[in-house]
């Protein structure tokens, strides 16, 4: 193992010793009681299989066959999840072939940040993760199940499914992806049209045509944002079948992988002699493997929040310093949009996750001594699935990347580090991703232009008020203020300013997105403005220094004067009602800091 990765892992193990042991003790106690349907009364059990066929009822009356819970985020508005409509029938058939049963245990919400970006619904996005976790727990609470299949892909959905399932961590669990849509309009062209629209040089019809050619069919959006980061991280953790992440939906190979996932989770179940559950597989080393994979690929900054929450659900405590120290030593091995111009289909064609895993294992960047859904160790994950006639087989990953400008080797990476930095200073603590930021923009010092509402930035841009060197401060965007929406809507405007030759940066207590790009952005800054953070005392014209090289975020104002300033107030009432936002007030009030996962689950005693 690389010594720094080993050091960070040992630090996490020591930090988490008490909480991890408490978690494992609880899971072991629950495991000893399973199968739980054996404890159900006759009335309970009759309710649990009332809608089943007679054959399934006969199977479920006995405890020596598995009952698989399907928890799905299917809806047919969300392109990534629309393929899941057909998965339950495939899963039931595969379970019957193993002499077992599969029941659709429950559905979870699945909102699309692409639809809600810049809209009021985005203010529910972050909290949908914990809502999904609770929905998953409700689905599994019937005590009818011996194993779990999780059907979900996108931003908050996979973290929510994992958090919820970890409360049932004694059950073996496999995540079942659906895959990305085929490639559409090239990303460079999409980006060009967006910036032309921001400048008023093309109209809405042209923009909609470009967007429709980009997002055009069932499947995950093909850029390397949070959804596809989810898939890669989960595979590196050994919670998918090997090579399953980026196989397109609606293909024979995709269906074969779904059947195989069903068969494998049944083999892992207690009635079939299995001993390990999800909580055994999600341990400190697999969490570190996920962080390494995130950093090596320049993945979504949202996972500086979500994977902290996932780890905490398994009793593991990680923080941003862990990310930053790992980032300082892992190589940058991919160039996938927005960190390059090609998409995840190109990454998969180049060798994909199996090639990446083999390179990282050989370089000592991943822990191999981990439990996965296909056995001990990650070597199996250096194989790519394919069909040999009707038979699903796995073959070793390609020896060399088939697309070197998209996927490099560990020995000849695109950059020597992962491009994620922690920022600390008198404006607070946050993170910045510089994978797609040119070196000359890693340090920006410029006067502040302050907004309390992201929508005000467009008006200032249109009026020419931002045509100068500036650091845009968008505050009152944290979890407690308005649910911490992504501010991806700002990207085209800031990108235009940078292209005009101005030095420009963003500082916010909100999120940017999995598609953070070429403009330096200090995000997730806390304490947030509503919670007494220094951002509430920043004024227009204050000089701010955003320095990703030194890891600092500071304001060039006399310390005594700055401390004495009265904090700005913002009327946030308009963000707390309408579009269901009034139902989430208790989540806003209870949210922890981003570095604690921005969750309410662990902010209070249970």
From TrEMBL:
User: Does the record's keyword annotation contain Metal-binding?
Assistant: yes
Q: Which GO terms describe its biological process?
A: D-gluconate metabolic process; Entner-Doudoroff pathway through 6-phosphogluconate
Could you list the residue ranges forming a coiled coil in this record?
A: none
Q: Which cofactor does it need?
A: [4Fe-4S] cluster
Q: Which Gene Ontology MF annotations are present?
A: 4 iron, 4 sulfur cluster binding; metal ion binding; phosphogluconate dehydratase activity
What SUPFAM superfamilies does UniProt report for this protein, alphabetically? IlvD/EDD N-terminal domain-like, LeuD/IlvD-like
Give the InterPro entries listed for this entry.
6-phosphgluc_deHydtase (IPR004786), Dihydro-acid_dehy_C (IPR042096), DiOHA_6PGluconate_deHydtase_CS (IPR020558), ILV_EDD_C (IPR056740), ILV_EDD_N (IPR000581), IlvD/EDD_N (IPR037237)
Q: Which residues form the Dihydroxy-acid/6-phosphogluconate dehydratase C-terminal domain?
A: 405-598
Q: What reaction(s) does this enzyme catalyze? A: 6-phospho-D-gluconate = 2-dehydro-3-deoxy-6-phospho-D-gluconate + H2O
Entry GO CC:
cytosol
Family the UniProt entry places it in = Belongs to the IlvD/Edd family.
Functional description taken from the UniProt entry: Catalyzes the dehydration of 6-phospho-D-gluconate to 2-dehydro-3-deoxy-6-phospho-D-gluconate.
NCBIfam families per record: edd
Q: What is this protein called?
A: Phosphogluconate dehydratase
Name the species this protein comes from. Answer: Marinobacter pelagius
Gene that this polypeptide is encoded by: edd
């Amino acid at each position: 193992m690389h010594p720094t990765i080993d050091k960070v892992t040992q630090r996490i193990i020591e930090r988490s010793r008490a909480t991890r042991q408490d978690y494992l003790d609880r899971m072991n106690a629950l495991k000893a009681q399973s199968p739980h349907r054996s404890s159900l009364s006759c009335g309970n059990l009759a309710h649990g299989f009332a809608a089943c066929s007679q054959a399934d009822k006969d199977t479920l009356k006995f405890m020596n066959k598995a009952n698989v819970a399907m928890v799905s985020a299917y809806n047919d508005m969300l392109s990534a999840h629309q393929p899941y409509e057909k998965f339950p029938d495939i899963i039931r058939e595969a379970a019957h072939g193993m002499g077992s049963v599969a029941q659709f245990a429950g559905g979870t919400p699945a909102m699309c940040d692409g639809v809600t970006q810049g809209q009021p619904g985005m203010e529910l996005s972050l909290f949908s993760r914990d809502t999904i976790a609770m929905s998953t727990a409700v689905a599994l609470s019937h005590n009818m199940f011996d194993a779990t299949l999780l059907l979900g892909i996108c931003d908050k959905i996979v973290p929510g499914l994992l958090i919820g399932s970890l409360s049932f961590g004694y059950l073996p669990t496999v995540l079942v992806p659906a895959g990305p849509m085929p490639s559409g309009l090239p990303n460079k062209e999409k980006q060009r049209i967006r910036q032309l629209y921001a400048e008023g040089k093309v109209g809405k019809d042209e923009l909609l045509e470009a967007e429709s050619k980009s997002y055009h069919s069932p499947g995950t959006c093909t850029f390397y944002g949070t959804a596809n980061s989810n898939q890669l991280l989960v595979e590196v953790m050994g919670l998918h079948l090997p090579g399953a992440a980026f196989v397109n939906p609606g293909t024979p190979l995709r269906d074969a992988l779904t059947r195989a996932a069903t068969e494998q989770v049944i083999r892992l179940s207690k009635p079939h002699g299995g001993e390990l559950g999800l909580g055994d597989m999600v341990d400190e080393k697999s969490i570190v493997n996920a962080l390494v994979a995130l950093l090596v690929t320049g993945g979504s900054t949202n996972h500086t929040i979500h994977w902290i929450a996932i780890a905490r659900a398994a009793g593991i405590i990680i923080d941003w310093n862990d990310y930053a120290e790992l980032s300082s030593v892992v190589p940058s091995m991919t160039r996938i949009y927005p960190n390059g111009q090609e998409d995840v289909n190109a990454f998969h064609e180049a060798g994909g996750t199996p090639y990446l895993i083999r390179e990282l294992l050989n370089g000592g960047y991943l822990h191999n001594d981990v439990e996965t859904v296909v056995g001990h160790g990650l070597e199996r994950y250096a194989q790519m699935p394919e069909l040999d006639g009707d038979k699903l087989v796995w073959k070793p990953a390609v020896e060399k990347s088939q697309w070197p400008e998209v996927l490099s080797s560990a020995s000849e990476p695109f950059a020597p580090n992962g491009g994620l930095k922690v920022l600390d200073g008198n404006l607070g603590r946050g993170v910045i991703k510089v994978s797609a930021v040119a070196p000359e923009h890693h340090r920006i010092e410029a006067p502040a232009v302050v907004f309390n509402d992201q929508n005000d930035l467009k008006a200032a841009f249109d009026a020419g008020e931002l045509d100068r060197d500036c650091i845009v401060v968008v505050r009152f965007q944290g979890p407690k203020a308005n649910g911490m929406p992504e501010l991806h809507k700002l990207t085209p405007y800031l990108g235009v300013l940078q292209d005009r030759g101005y030095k420009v940066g963003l500082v916010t207590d909100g999120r940017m997105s999995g598609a953070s790009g070429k403009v330096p952005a200090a995000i997730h800054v806390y304490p947030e403005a509503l919670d007494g953070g220094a951002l509430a005392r920043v004024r227009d014209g204050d000089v701010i220094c955003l320095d990703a090289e030194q890891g600092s975020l500071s304001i060039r104002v006399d310390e005594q004067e700055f401390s004495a300033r009265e904090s700005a107030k913002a009327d946030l009432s308009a963000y707390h009602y309408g579009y269901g936002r009034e139902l989430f007030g208790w989540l806003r009030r209870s949210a922890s800091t981003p570095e604690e996962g921005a969750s309410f689950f662990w902010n209070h005693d249970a």
